[in-house]
Design goal:
With about 400 residues, the chain is of the alpha/beta class. It is about 40% helix and about 20% strand.
Length: about 400
């Protein structure tokens, strides 16, 4: 079954085309549509076994972008299918499913209405997902669509971990609570990491670290999400590229009062002007922070140490919550590629049973690898995340 996987942002569309079978999968193509709504848009199409294809032209909306993707997929030279009739289903990554969706769901009017109702608490992500769904209804009418929610995996978190100690009425009225994100990635790397380490996924204590420009850490207890560092929004938890992560709310409101900020300005400051960008004034990209760190920039040294240390704190916290630890998994753009980060986080954890092997770690990027010593009681691994494959698998299982 040929499945199109879409991850729609406000001005972009990431996609993959995967041929799913009961016991196997085959990537046919992947690509990226960028700069939607700007004067000049981009489509980069990468078919497996063929030359890449790139065009630049105005792409006013998601429907136009998806139409260009369809043309690329069926093009005689760089296409991977002979007809759009071969696309049997479309799977969408949707950031926020609230409490409505503990699992993936086939799209209908009720599902769309619930996604729409959550736009107020996911204003950057859910509207884009709806645009992608509606664009497919136009371009591929009648093809079944499935939504796979970043929040679904975390719906198993117990109330003691997802509730805030705020007046209970705000949970009842507005459903203010921890939701968590990156769930599709955490689920995939926990399961894949357990298999690589020879653990029973359903009977293991795993901490997964999805580390990138945005990042989160999750406690996976016996195959289920037990706690996670992101909260009501993706702002909470780790120090990130432009997000502050966990901070005393009074510090933020104090700054807002002193600076005469509106609520919107305060939220923008914490989400878009903080993190390593705000600490250094250099960049939100950890590769740039690494360069400045090695050049001796004091603020870069502070920012990177804070970024790394916050990850370590959550690893320790979640090991304590679960009553032990069997496996630590690193994934994401930084998690898969930064040897220094992985070693820094794992150093000093010998008391927990972690014996990190620096030689195994050296130079490893984006390849599923065990990084701990052979006799380490707690295993450490890199797992290259594959959210698109998880989305395709859920879509296949619901539609077939």
């Amino acid at each position: 079954m040929v499945i199109l996987v879409l991850n729609c942002g406000s001005s972009s569309i990431k996609y993959q085309v995967i041929d799913m079978q009961d016991a196997s999968s085959k990537l046919l193509a992947k690509g990226l549509v960028e700069r939607i709504g700007l004067a000049e848009g981009d489509l980069t199409h990468k078919p497996v076994g063929k030359e890449n294809f790139h065009i630049q032209q105005p792409i006013p909306n998601h429907t136009t972008g998806i139409s260009l993707v369809m043309e690329a997929l069926t093009n005689p030279e760089h296409g991977v299918i002979s007809s759009l009739d071969e696309v049997k289903a479309v799977g969408h990554r949707v950031a926020h499913g609230g409490e409505f969706f503990p699992a993936s769901a086939i799209v209908d009017e009720d599902v769309k209405a619930k996604i729409q109702s959550l736009c107020a608490i996911a204003p950057l992500h859910n509207p884009a997902s709806l645009q992608g769904i509606e664009a497919i209804e136009t371009v591929l009418p009648g093809v079944k669509q499935v939504c796979v929610f970043d929040t679904s995996f975390h719906q198993t978190i117990p109330a003691t971990n997802y509730m805030y100690a705020l007046p209970y009425e705000y949970y009842e009225k507005y459903r203010v609570r921890k939701y968590g994100f990156h769930g599709t990635s955490h689920k995939y790397v926990a399961r894949t990491g357990a298999k690589l380490a020879g653990l029973d996924f359903e009977n293991a204590k795993i901490v997964t670290c999805h580390i990138g420009n945005g990042g989160s850490v999750t406690a996976v207890l016996n195959g289920k999400s037990f706690d996670t560092s992101m909260g009501f929004s993706p702002l909470d938890g780790l120090v990130m590229g432009t997000r502050c992560g966990s901070v005393d709310a009074s510090a933020a409101t104090y700054i807002g009062a002193k600076e005469g900020m509106s609520y919107a300005e305060l939220e923008a400051m914490m989400n878009k002007k903080s993190g390593v960008q705000g600490l250094t004034g250099i960049s939100s990209d950890m590769r740039d922070i690494d360069d400045a760190y090695h050049a001796g920039n004091e603020r870069a040294i502070l920012a990177r140490d804070m970024y790394y240390n916050r990850i370590k704190k959550f690893v320790g916290e979640y090991a304590a919550e679960m009553g032990g630890l069997d496996l630590i998994v690193f994934t994401g753009g930084v998690g898969e590629n930064s040897c220094e980060m992985r070693e820094w986080v794992c150093s000093g954890l010998e008391f927990m049973g972690v014996k990190f092997d620096a030689a195994k770690n050296e130079g490893v990027k984006g390849v599923d690898t065990i990084l701990s010593a052979d006799d380490s009681r707690v295993k450490v691994a890199i797992i290259a995340t594959d959210e698109e494959l998880m989305i395709a698998a859920d879509t296949y299982n619901l539609v077939k």
